[in-house]
Request: fold
Amino acid sequence: MQQVLKITDKPEGIAAMVETMVQGPTQVLSDLSEIAAVGHRVVHGGRHYQQPVVVDDEVKATIQSLIPLAPAHNPANLQGIEAIAQSLGTIPQVAVFDTAFHSSMPEAAATYPGPYAWVEQGIRRYGFHGISHQYVAQRAAALMGRDIASLKLLTCHLGNGCSLAAVKHGVCVDTTMGFTPLDGLMMGSRSGSVDPGILIYLMRQEGYSADQLDTLLNKESGLKGLSGQSNDMRAVAEAMEQGDAQARLAIEVFIHRLRREMGGMISSLGGLDGVAFTAGVGENSPMVWQQACEPFEFLGLRLKDELDRDKADQDIAAADSAVRVLVVHTQEEWAIAQACLSLLQPNHA
Reply:
């Protein structure tokens, strides 16, 4: 039986969620003492964290200091950590950072071509969705029956937020998101990369403030902004099928920018053994699979004639394709659980 709780306070909501694990119809534990550790997805670790870390006061202070780099995410991540401490006391907590997987990128890929003072200030390409990209790359290698250390993989996390990663021999060498999650691909309501001169123009000619630009680029652009319909690809695709010209344009721009960035990632890899699609759009849109892959037929990449969504991970490449194309259900929570086990019980990981 489903129960709806009228809770608006996030810590209170987390406490209620924890309690449901030991009581009611959703009971999964006999006692909260069975919980050995709690893992958290933390969006921004800056230059401080390249690996998962056990949370202490110093870690919390660092996550707090990085809020200006991820104002929509790091505060909520901290609230979750504090709420678990209130509910479960001194239980070990582990922070797993979305930026960590991308910390291996070469300096040439991570550095912006501004003044060198930016480098000293920590203004660089950090990348995001790293937990997902790492899991998907490992899962793709397993599905291919290959050692990830021998592969050049392009992972495509396409949801409301979208990013690509070039994973060479198990290591990230390039990605599309940058200093913030706003960079790179066109997304549900985010613009992705735009000419910075547009922002200067809007400030000078239209009087836009920093907060107005933030709202415009993060919440009123992308599929939502261009289509005038929704940030949901399904709704925009349905509008396109009904003849809506703005919806068609939105999807055409989405596909164009996706293809262009895929080409960039392939050049960073210096070859391509596999492509993996994941997240809401990436796992469920045969249209996106087909249109995204079409320009890369010259690499010997061919998809099956019949493309269908499947709950299970699947290989959608034709049998004779020189490049495997996988659809993988991302399991960030599983990857975080593995990180907790590896960090707290290294001999059992």
About this structure: The first strand starts at residue 38 and ends at 42.
